[in-house]
Amino acid sequence: MSLGRGSRTLGSEFAEQRSDAPSSLQLEDGARVAVIGGGPAGSFFSYFLLDMAERMGTEIGVDVYDPRIFSRPGPASCNHCGGIISESLVQILATDGINLPTKVVQRGIDAYVLHTDRASTRIETPLREKRIAAVHRGGGPRGIKEVKWDSFDGFLQNLAVEKGAQLVQARVEGIEWEEGRPQVAPKGGIAQVYDLVVGAVGVNTNSLKLFEGLGFGYQPPETTKTYICEFPLGQKMVQKYVGNAMHVFLFDLPRLEFAALIPKGDYLTVCLMGEDIDKELVDKFLDAPEVKKCLPPGWQTPETLCHCAPRINISGADQPFKDRVVMIGDCGVTKLYKDGIGAAYRTAKAAATTAVFEGVSSEDFKRHYWPVCKAIGTDNVIGKGIFAVTRQIQKRGFASRAVLHMAADEQRQEGDQRRMSTVLWDTFTGSAPYRDVLRRMLHPAFAGCFLKNLIASIGNSRKTPEGHIDPLELLKQQ
Amino acid sequence: MNKGTLGKTFESGEVIVRQGEEGQAMYVIQEGQVEVINERDTQEVRLAVLNQGDFFGEVPFFERRGQAGTVRATVRALEPVRVLTVDKKTLLRRLHEDASLSYRILQTMARRIQEMEAEVTRLIVGD
Fold first, then answer.
1. Taking a C-beta distance cutoff of 8 angstroms, is the pair A68, A137 a contact?
2. Looking at CA atoms only, how far is residue A202 from chain B in angstroms?
3. I need a labelling partner for A184 at 20 to 30 A (CA). Which of A36, A151, A212, B5 fits?
4. How many A×B Cβ pairs under 8 Å?
5. Distance (Å, rounded) from C-alpha A75 to C-alpha A81?
6. Could you give the number of structural domains in chain B?
7. Reported pTM
8. Residue B69 lies in a domain
9. Nearest CA in chain A to B105
10. Is the backbone of residue B24 left (phi > 0), alpha (psi -120 to 50) or beta?
11. Which domain holds residue B26?
């Protein structure tokens, strides 16, 4: 069972076996569940499992194992991520009764600025409403002088604890089978037997080996290295030079898929994604004139900077479940490049729903959890195609000019037929499935308009499209 | 608006949705209080007061196909209010993918029905 390593055959082994018989492994009253990992996937799973069990009148004990204290600043308490909560996830969480507090949301994003090597254009959110949240995953970057905002991961963890989850602040050293049930051994603690163990450990941890060692065929996802750092600009400078817009860069630099500057409260988060990002590539990016325009004049990268090179999941895990074990979030399946927290929400909730209403056997997860993973995986295949197209556009000046010109034209017009703007918005904010983006790109009106702009751009000596504005000028107009 | 806030703000007295409009979004109250009013001729009847965490605007989503879903009551801010807009398409898609998401909406609708039944009984029978 695989969504990774180039394998796309799901075949007859996944043919649905029709059976109305109740699951052989159900969570009864008094059942115990261990969640290894207290980040968003683990917290969402715990929260929804306990919420749904309460509706069913079933008492289930949930222990969440995580040694980190998310309220503390620094890398040890951080889940190493750009810190964007997508527009679609913000809405769905609100519908689920989870509203992000102002103490967690450092900045509401209502626009993004797309930069290529040649020009830039600003795309406003269609509703002119801030629905993308920029957060810090932990207590803040290393060296932070004052913790003004709460951790997003800490907020979610508190929700789970308020629902009844028990937080065990210890690292798990071993997981073994004890008479058919998983036994979890924390460092310095007593080993406990559970009815279900949930892997929510991400992909940047040695804890993955614990699950590989359980012998059910789990293979972690393929990953690639990214780069994230936090520039301590201060609130005024962040507002002046970047504002409430996310800046996305499509440069023709080998191995760089795209990069983003994400404004937070006092910090500007820099994210680079692509193929094994290294220092040389980071320096090239930061030296680019379009990037320097987004920073205060004369800005020098500090010697001591909070930065990390986390790995991200680029292909689903093999065999993410078995009897009494399920892998969720990044260590299972996630959306390609974007909205990882949204994917964590979806997989966590699907696993929790399966566990409460169906059971915790391999068959239960295959019938009710796997389809959600498969849908994300299939969408990622389309995403890979879209980013392949993006790479070709990045390499060709006439193509990137056509894209910017079409988007800039749309932004000047009233009405909701902002086709290129919507394609770009959904691709780079992760707010919509990749299949929606592809559907829009294949629409005849989009294709026709883009072709028109391509023809105008080819052989056109115009270096910048109409509507290009210096990003600093854009901010002065805010 | 504080840079860390999400959604849209409305001043006290401002109409957020008007009775008879086409319903294209649901709204979740992030801060503040609103009143729900049914307007008939020149009269206004207050149906409810909603607070932080409550939502409104979802009823038109569940109208029968072929009938345009219209907003059944005007919602007005009673004080400065911040609401988050939930797109109809985003919500309906997720509802089809995740049935458990509908639980909270059904729970709220059930509570509203109970409150309305109690109010009808009170009007007929008296306090």
1. no
2. 23
3. A151
4. 87
5. 11
6. 1
7. 0.92
8. yes
9. A95
10. alpha
11. 8-125
What is the nearest CA distance from B52 to chain A, expressed in angstroms? 10
Task: Provide the pLDDT for residue B67.
Answer: 57
- pLDDT category, A473, cuts 50, 70, 90? very low
Q: Are residues A440 and A456 in the same domain?
A: yes
Contacts of B30 in chain A (CB under 8 A): 94, 99
The answer to whether residue A280 scores a pLDDT higher than 50 is yes
A91–B90 CB contact, under 8 Å: yes
From CA A16, how far away is CA A13, in angstroms rounded?
9
Q: How far is B97 from chain A (nearest CA, A)?
A: 9
**What are residue B36's phi and psi, to 5 degrees?**
-110, 120
Q: Is A248 helix (H, G, I), strand (E, B) or coil?
A: strand
Indicate whether A410 and A458 sit together in one domain: yes
Q: Is residue B120 part of a domain?
A: yes
Q: Judge whether B39 lies within some domain.
A: yes
A90 at B interface, C-beta within 8 A:
yes
Between A6-10, A340-344, B36-40, B92-96, the lowest mean confidence (pLDDT) is in A6-10
Please check whether residue B104 touches A, CB under 8 A: yes
A 208-267 residues inside an 8 A Cβ radius of B: 239, 244, 265
- Domain assignment of residue A229, given as a range: 109-144+225-311
CB contact under 8 A, A94 and B98: no
Confidence of residue A467 (pLDDT cuts 50, 70, 90): very low
Residue closest to B24 by CA, chosen among B82, B83, B92, B74: B92
Q: Residue A90 and residue B6: Cβ atoms within 8 Å?
A: yes
Residues A333-366 have pLDDT tens digits of 999 999 999 999 999 999 999 999 999 999 999 9
A130 touches chain B (CB under 8 A): yes
Give the strand pairing for B55-56 and A321-322: unpaired
Q: Please report residues of B whose CB lies closer than 8 A to that of A130.
A: 1, 5-7
Q: Which residues of B fall within a CB distance of 8 Å from A52?
A: 100
User: What pLDDT score does A22 carry?
Assistant: 65
Distance from CA of A461 to the nearest CA of B (A): 41
Residue of A nearest to B85 (CA): A91
DSSP designation for B7: B
Say yes or no: B111 contacts chain A, CB-CB below 8 A.
no
Q: Are A175 and A213 in contact (CB under 8 A)?
A: yes
Quote the CA–CA distance of B83 and B32 in Å, as a whole number: 9
DSSP-based helix, strand, coil % in chain B, nearest 5: 30, 35, 35
Asked whether the beta carbons of residue B28 and residue A95 sit closer than 8 angstroms, the reply is yes
Q: For the segment A169-217, what is each residue's pLDDT rounded down to a tens digit?
A: 999 999 999 999 999 999 999 999 999 999 999 999 999 999 999 999 9
Using an 8 Å Cβ cutoff, are A127 and B85 in contact?
yes
Residues of B in contact with A53 (CB under 8 A): none
